[in-house]
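Preliminary data (for renewal application), hexanoyl-coenzyme A complex.
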Amino acid sequence: MSGLKDGLLAGKVAFVAGGSSGINLGIAQHFARAGAKVALISRSPEKIAAAAKTITDEGFEAIGLAADVRDYAAVEAALRQTHDQFGKIDVVLSGAAGNFVAPALGMSANGFKTVVDIDLIGTFNVLRASYEFLNRPGASLISITAGQAVRPAMFQAHVCAAKAGINMLTKCLAMEWGPAGVRVNAISPGPIADTEGMRRLAPTPEDEARIKGRITLRDYGTKTDIAEAALYLSSDSAKYITGTILNVDGGSELGDASGSAVMG
Ligand code: HXC
Ligand code: NAP
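Predicted structure:
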């Protein structure tokens, strides 16, 4: 598909953490179609190689590297390899995450810690380690957060805590790195169709219908909706935007729009 975004990231280098599937792979593919060379990381060597191949099969440049975001040295090595192969990094997308549905009393300390380690500590690792490899001034760093950061949810204590931390980390790093010309923002997707996240949170058609009935725009979003927002935040069109949490959520953050919660 051609359009205004053609060439928006021409000559740029993007690094996508958690890029082997879902929303983040959709973003990486979008970045490549806009002209960026893209490096992707995730834990699984097979999954990340296959993800990079979806991009090279379209005729664009991409590499897939195995690295766990909980391992700072591994993340740093992947960033160094990206820098050595493609040049200074213009765009960093931190989206690796884990989730399972469990009440706090059904969660061990390690279960809680695992999600915080992947989502929050992993995001710090990716953003912190990227700094010395960035094209400064002008680089754009984007994390993927979620509505759980600002709305408490049953059986999601680990995700709510971790994503809330990402929101505040985004704002703190934006303040510290803005003077060097590095913008730091986050995207908060609403429920997105055909993703592992929603397969875990709403596995049945009944769950899906119930959730859609509460969303202001009455539907799930698409991976392209999130990729378009990421492309915008990466581009010079957003050069005066930093420290922002951009909701791409069909109005989910407004609350339950089913009309059944008038007295709520
Ligand atoms: C209770 C659980 C559990 C469950 C795992 N654990 N699943 N506890 N209920 N259903 C516990 C384990 O028992 C263990 O604790 C600890 O968590 C770590 O488990 P591991 O399997 O060793 O962890 P690991 O291999 O690192 O895998 C991480 C994972 C896994 C998060 C548990 O599900 C994963 O790899 N997820 C990645 C894909 C994913 O989740 N995608 C969705 C992202 S969507 P003990 O005490 O036994 O050692 C998202 C939601 C945002 O982020 C909002 C959407 C709207
Ligand atoms: P997904 O397909 O499961 O994506 C998660 C990615 O993270 C995978 O590529 C996974 O690859 C990688 N990953 C997991 N643990 C990792 C680790 N320790 N180190 C490196 N990579 C790791 O899920 P998704 O639903 O598309 O979610 C993507 C992002 O959007 C997440 O940040 C999620 O919180 C957010 N989000 C999703 C929704 C939704 O509706 N789906 C809504 C709001 C926010 P490997 O298994 O190969 O490591």
